[in-house]
Amino acid sequence: MGDNSVVYWYSNLEKHLCGYCKNPNGNVSHGMWAKILSVEDYQNLIDRGWRRSGSYCYKPLMNEICCPMYTIKCDALNFQLSKSQKKVIKKFNKFLKDGVLHKNTNYQDCQDSISEFVPREIPVPAHVLDKEVVINCEKNEGDSSQIAAPSVSQVTEAVPGTSSLPKTGVGADPSKPPCKKAKILRMERKKEKLQKKGIVFEKKPVANEQKTLEELLNETVPDSKHKIRITLEQIHENHKYFHLTASLFAKYQMAVHNEPPGDCDEHQYLNFLVDTPLQNIRFSRDSELGFGSFHQLYWLDDKLIAVGVIDILPKCVSAVYFFYDPDYRDLTLGTYGSLREVEFARTLHGKISTIDSYYMGFYIHSCPKMRYKGKLSPSYLLCPETYHWIPIEKSLGKLEVSKYSRLDKVEAVDENLCTSRDVDEIKILYNRKLVLFKQYKRKFGGHDLFDTIGRLIGQKCAKSIIFIADN
Description:
Layout: E1 6-16, E2 27-36, H1 39-46, E3 51-53, E4 56-60, E5 70-75, H2 83-98, E6 120-121, E7 132-133, H3 152-158, H4 182-196, H5 213-217, E8 228-233, H6 242-257, H7 266-274, E9 281-282, E10 290-300, E11 303-312, E12 316-324, H8 333-349, E13 357-363, E14 379-382, E15 389-391, H9 392-401, H10 420-424, E16 427-430, E17 433-436, H11 437-444, H12 447-462, E18 466-468
Parallel strand pairs: 1-18, 12-13, 16-18
Antiparallel strand pairs: 1-2, 2-4, 3-4, 5-13, 5-14, 6-7, 8-10, 9-10, 10-11, 11-12, 14-15, 16-17
């Protein structure tokens, strides 16, 4: 079978409890278990709305699922930093410099706060709830519309013995000049003194050039208290860091998501964040980098504080999961890790020009708390009917009207759609022999099933993936 992908198709739809709206059977998806999966095939699959969870691959049935999940990607080469993202980087760099970790005493539970975060989906097997976990909570700067101001009665009730509130002021005196900041007043006094001495005060023009993502992330000073380094590893059960990363995973799951030890032990970690069907291929004979599944280990000096699980594919870096040491949660490591992964995609572009995107999993517009991924700009959503990428700004209006929507133009078509001839050429492993579907169907039928398979995986994958027959 060479390097072909080999999968087992689950003929029945998977129905689970929805992790967002709690509909008991609202999470509906097609699924297949991959024994071997080439990076090219997985790239083509995620570009049709598929997602892997360990070796299990699933595709939400978008027009039936209660909370439609749209594949989302960020254009890494044209990434634009927001103010809040810059603050995250500066806060982290300041910690490296002075070693002081400022604890947030008002830290709220991630599930209940209005926040800006960059989470990842937690991998689950076919028979377990597919849920998305929140990695990080931080203040949602500028999103004051979602925080209701207290009424007068509420304020009165909250302060015992207060029967009346102070009268509303009339504001600043319009006949007087507006107040100035102390810094400006000091500069004006300095300028006045220099002018009296005959010295002309000229303010130097401020350079308008903004720092790049790479410049901000890698700003260091020689006397920093701490150093951060990121290593790329292919973790497996016998890897020297397997137990260390598994221990951090368990610590994170129990502290942040209140999972019992049995749900996040080494066996669970191995199945869903270490085992992978992806075939590793080096970029070149001399390259240490390549395509496949990897773990990015974040070391604070010699201490492991975070791990990012990623797939390197022909067109992108695809985020799988991110976990960190809860002792450092106030560093907003979830957001910091995503920015590092965007940086990594940009770095890989210099070696493989086709890698230009950062895939973030699914965007769920019908769940307000799950709209965070659109904050990485510029972002695109995958149309569930034509599988074209549509700018998120052009999609939000349609999603406000209907939670399931065709995002593309009416006249657009799916160029990767299978024809009946393509379906006939699908390869099937039956009784240890490789046969084509046109041969297989004469004895076993299966027209409707393989028509569905062809429609879901597309023409490209239909030509390369081998399906294991279960009869």
